[in-house]
Amino acid sequence: MKKPRFDYSQQYIPHGYMELTIPPRNGDFAMEPNYLHIWPRNTFMMIALPNKNKTFTCTLFMPFEEFEKLPTSRDVLDFFHKYFPDAVPLMGEQALTRDFFLLPAQPMISVKCSPFHFKSRCVLMGDAAHAIVPFFGQGMNAGFEDCLVFDELMEKFNNDLSMCLPEFSRFRIPDDHAVSDLSMYNYVEMRAHVNSRWFIFHKNVERFLHAIMPSTFIPLYTMVTFTRIRYHEAMLRWRWQKKVINKGFFIFGTLIATGSTYFLIRSMAPRPLDYLRRPWDWVTNFQNTGHVSLKTPWSH
């Protein structure tokens, strides 16, 4: 950080996390193990991931001030019975209160810096260069990808560090900053957006478009997790796809509104030529009688 022209930032998010446990039931998983289980509650959430010993690790993500509102075992049980009633019997009340007070809620930090290298002497990778919040599950993957890219560049430049390290910084910084931003966004999506029917509908449309145009429309999670598409390119492509889908919704909605208005007007005016005929009748009447009578809204 003492190096001139070295940019560095860190951000602690206002939410902390706490790990709890769901033990096996009758020697097997207490829930379906092949899923990510999420309890979204808009401003906080709990997730559960399976372990090889048939337990689940539950992680409660919540603002620190909400953790501070639960100083006693009774408060914890009341909170969980209110917001996660189906999880309480799986955890067990006694184990839940024991695990809850085992450790305090832990902070989460996001780190960005630039460049990643110093001359041809050293280079930062993984969390040392780009610690991210855990909500996309890409922290370790991003670190491994750093190593993969570095290895490819070493081969490209014949192990010349004076060429490899600057190129590594240039190549990886946009991607590592992008995955940091995507991880922040995904927390909001997981704890809040998934409760929206409009969001679910939007996701279903995205899946449908991916099914009929698999190389054109690719869901963000698929791009990030199952392809070598660079993180920053995945983010740009995802934003473009959202714009296309939203424009499609707008055009479709406009057509529906226009068509509905047209048929409504037709149903209210069975003789559409009346509006054209009436001014001509006024002219004819004025020529014959010398005056025109206009019906007002208050006349009977």
Automatic annotation (TrEMBL):
<keyword id="KW-0503">Monooxygenase</keyword>
<keyword id="KW-0274">FAD</keyword>
<protein>
    <submittedName>
        <fullName>Kynurenine 3-monooxygenase</fullName>
    </submittedName>
</protein>
<keyword id="KW-0521">NADP</keyword>
<keyword id="KW-0560">Oxidoreductase</keyword>
<keyword id="KW-0285">Flavoprotein</keyword>
<feature type="transmembrane region" description="Helical">
    <location>
        <begin position="248"/>
        <end position="265"/>
    </location>
</feature>
<keyword id="KW-0812">Transmembrane</keyword>
<dbReference type="GO" id="GO:0070189">
    <property type="term" value="P:kynurenine metabolic process"/>
</dbReference>
<dbReference type="GO" id="GO:0005741">
    <property type="term" value="C:mitochondrial outer membrane"/>
</dbReference>
<dbReference type="Pfam" id="PF01494">
    <property type="entry name" value="FAD_binding_3"/>
</dbReference>
<dbReference type="GO" id="GO:0071949">
    <property type="term" value="F:FAD binding"/>
</dbReference>
<dbReference type="InterPro" id="IPR002938">
    <property type="entry name" value="FAD-bd"/>
</dbReference>
<feature type="transmembrane region" description="Helical">
    <location>
        <begin position="208"/>
        <end position="227"/>
    </location>
</feature>
<keyword id="KW-1133">Transmembrane helix</keyword>
<dbReference type="GO" id="GO:0004502">
    <property type="term" value="F:kynurenine 3-monooxygenase activity"/>
</dbReference>
<feature type="domain" description="FAD-binding">
    <location>
        <begin position="90"/>
        <end position="147"/>
    </location>
</feature>
<keyword id="KW-0472">Membrane</keyword>
<dbReference type="InterPro" id="IPR036188">
    <property type="entry name" value="FAD/NAD-bd_sf"/>
</dbReference>
